[in-house]
Design goal:
The chain has 232 residues and is of the alpha/beta class. Helix content is 45%, strand content 17%. It contains 9 helices and 7 strands. The strands form 2 sheets. It has a 5-stranded parallel β-sheet with strand order 2-1-3-4-5, with helices on both faces. Helix 7 packs across helix 9 and helix 8 crosses helix 9.
Length: 232
């Protein structure tokens, strides 16, 4: 099990640093370990703290964030970068992408988008760390991951799975904690058929956001109980 993803925030606006810090604290599995308000401080913090991830602004008092990107690539190759900036110039975006940034988020920062990007990064980090030698299919998945960024979540769901219903099922199963819940109980909770509830619950199992256990009663067939699986 991986420890928390350690984050360095590089931003010259203290108010934005505070916002970013609070946002990171709300995403499970992440922890801010240091902040820096300029490029020189960032270089010191990088050497001292060795974070997994840098949240980086483009416009710093003493240098452009893109310059720091190349410093990181030269001296801290195992550190990943997500740009969070108001800079929308295509040249800036291209330079960041050439430097291998994981993502590029334009301000103002919206928490839901921020959370999805961080969770996407953590999934990528866990997936690539688990791999040793990889085949072409795995390489394609890694290289093509950015095609999903910015797409509506509905576009990424399989046929027959509606985002709104899925979120209702997920919220309902979270409320049960360790006791578990059956498809019939979920169907009553959210107002759908048992078959529909079962379909969404099984989808959550496939996505590893839930697990299903067979519960044997005193009479009748065993019942599948679903429990929420928190991200680790």
């Amino acid at each position: 099990m991986m420890k928390k993803v350690e984050v360095l925030i590089v931003e010259d606006d203290l108010r934005i640093i505070d916002i970013n810090r609070r946002f990171v604290s709300k995403v499970e599995g992440f922890e801010v370990i240091a902040t820096a308000t300029n490029g020189a401080e960032a270089k010191e913090m990088l050497a001292y703290t060795k974070p997994h991830l840098v949240l980086l602004d483009v416009y710093l008092p003493d240098m452009l964030g893109s310059e720091l990107v190349w410093h990181i690539r030269q001296h801290h190759r195992d550190v990943d970068i997500i740009m969070i900036t108001a800079a929308k110039e295509i040249e800036m975006v291209q330079e960041a992408l050439r430097g291998g940034v994981f993502d590029y988020i334009v301000k103002p920062l919206v928490f839901e988008r921020f959370r999805e990007r961080l969770e996407s990064y953590r999934e990528h980090l866990l997936r690539t760390r688990e791999l040793g030698e990889i085949d072409q299919e795995a390489i394609d998945r890694i290289l093509m991951r950015n095609l999903a960024v910015g797409k509506p979540r509905e576009a990424l769901l399989p046929k027959g799975i509606d985002l709104l219903t899925l979120e209702k099922v997920l919220d309902a199963i979270k409320q049960t904690k360790d006791t578990g819940v059956s498809a019939e109980e979920i169907s009553k909770e959210i107002g759908t058929s048992r078959t529909t509830a079962r379909r969404y619950l099984e989808y959550l199992v496939v996505e590893k956001k839930a697990r299903a256990d067979l519960i044997y009663g005193t009479v009748g067939r065993p019942e599948r109980k679903y429990r929420y699986v928190a991200s680790s």
